[in-house]
Amino acid sequence: MTYQARDIAEYIINREASEGRTVSNLRLQKLLYFVQAQFIVQKGSPCFTQRMEAWDYGPVVPEVYHAYKFFGSNAIPCTKTSARIDEADKALIDSMLDSCSEYSTSTLVDMTHAQDPWKVAYQNVFDNEITVAAMCRYFKEA
After folding, report:
1. Rounded to two decimals, what is the model's pTM?
2. How do residues 83-113 score in pLDDT, each as one tens digit?
3. Is 107 helix (H, G, I), strand (E, B) or coil?
4. Does residue 110 contact residue 40 with C-beta atoms inside 8 Å?
5. Fewest beta carbons within 10 Å, which of 43, 58, 96, 136?
6. Number of structural domains, the chain?
């Protein structure tokens, strides 16, 4: 099943809050990237289909970024989510969130900057999209 990136973002925000962890918009963008990578590797398909781009501070889903930019660098508060996410998919997302929880946001940024999907897209001034195909190539070989 493929989801909307905004629904996955809401799930991430609420899940992190339930674990006593805060999520800024910058951190949320990196978590979306790593969740997307996890789905590609584990399920062979993306978690969401919305465009991901290479921005200065790493991968960004513009639609999600603009939805939460009001909060700046502050923690995004919990929201009511109405999206239905499959329990197995929640478990996959949760495992990635737990793995990422040991890293600071700046470390997550550095990690994405070291990876080809971001590096290649960032250098392309005409189309900075981080494609599912690029993520698939990189993460399935890693």
Report:
1. 0.96
2. 799 999 999 999 999 999 999 999 999 999 9
3. helix
4. no
5. 43
6. 1
